[in-house]
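Quick review question:
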């Protein structure tokens, strides 16, 4: 059984009171420099580490933040998590990561578990199934700092960090139009997700600005955002069986974009001869794909960093924060 050294042990060894040892370790001015020196030297010698649980009870701080994402293996989220950790660890916070796998039930369980572990705050990107956010709003109302990134809940008044999804979608769709494609379909995640709404809006605006019709039969929603390969496959098959089948497709997500290429390969659909593709993707392996994929890349790392800075600002604020902002970062179109 691991038994950490306590302040009591140090006090006993040095023949001092526990309060004297405690003050010396906290470096308060009430203790003489000589006593401090003895206590600190001994603490170092026996490798004394303050108990983080005891500290957190005392300070009501656990120095840890919870992160809720759909999937760590998704290139976008793995890059965002790198950004989150780069700021958190610099500031002495631990990061606890949980995955929802696009499930609302799992999101609720993960959020409750993190809150019960007394994290100081949460960074949340909603699951594609989530429509009811009461599990988050109740914590928010009780004062737990929460910052949303990527997939945000408009109903909760707090900081949010997103990419310029609408503009990115517009640029990708316009790129396909300028390449001469006439019938451009759109494959996206669930209808209610903030990123789906923004990207659909950019797609529709690009079509309208080029006097092209927006057809509902060309818009396919995958409720699990590409996590279920059969969902992506069904959507592609439906598109390809249309009388006027699309000659290009704009895909609105990382997991969906790579999934889409796999389906085309499986169904022996030649890209770009039979259908061209452009999509949102932060995957670094896209250059290795043949055929490749023109992609909208989000500043995932920067989004992670900024969301963490905003969360720590809420956690460390001396007074309740009343003013919140939504930061929108620019995307890049990588033409391949």
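Suggested answer, residue by residue:
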């Amino acid at each position: 059984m691991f038994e950490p050294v306590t302040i009591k042990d140090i006090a006993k060894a040095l023949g001092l009171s526990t309060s004297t040892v405690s003050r010396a370790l906290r470096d308060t001015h009430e203790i003489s420099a000589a006593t401090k020196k003895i206590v600190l030297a001994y603490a170092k010698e026996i490798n004394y580490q303050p108990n983080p649980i005891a500290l957190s009870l005392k300070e009501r701080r656990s120095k840890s933040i919870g992160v809720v994402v759909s999937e760590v293996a998704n290139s976008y989220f793995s890059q965002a998590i790198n950004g989150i950790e780069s700021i958190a660890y610099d500031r002495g916070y631990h990061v606890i990561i949980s995955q929802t796998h696009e499930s609302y039930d799992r999101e609720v369980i993960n959020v409750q578990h993190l809150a019960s572990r007394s994290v100081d705050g949460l960074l949340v990107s909603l699951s594609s199934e989530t429509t009811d956010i009461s599990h988050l709003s109740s914590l928010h109302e009780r004062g737990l700092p929460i910052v949303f990134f990527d997939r945000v809940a408009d109903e909760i008044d707090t900081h949010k960090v997103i990419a310029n999804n609408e503009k990115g979608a517009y640029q990708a769709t316009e790129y396909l139009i300028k390449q001469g494609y006439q019938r451009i379909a759109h494959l996206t995640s669930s209808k209610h997700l903030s990123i789906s709404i923004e990207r659909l809006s950019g797609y529709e605006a690009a079509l309208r600005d080029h006097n092209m019709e927006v057809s509902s039969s060309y818009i396919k929603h995958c409720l699990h955002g590409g996590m279920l390969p059969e969902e992506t496959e069904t959507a592609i098959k439906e598109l390809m069986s249309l009388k006027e089948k699309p000659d290009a497709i704009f895909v609105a997500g990382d997991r969906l974009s790579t999934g889409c290429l796999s389906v085309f390969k499986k169904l022996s659909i030649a890209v770009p001869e039979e259908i061209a593709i452009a999509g949102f993707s932060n995957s670094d392996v896209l250059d290795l794909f043949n055929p490749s994929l023109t992609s909208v890349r989000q500043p995932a790392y920067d989004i992670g960093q900024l969301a963490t800075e905003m969360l720590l600002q809420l956690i460390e604020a001396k007074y309740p924060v009343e003013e919140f902002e939504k930061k929108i970062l620019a995307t890049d179109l990588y033409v391949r």
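Why it works: Residues 23 and 29 are 8 Å apart (CA to CA). The longest strand covers residues 64-69.
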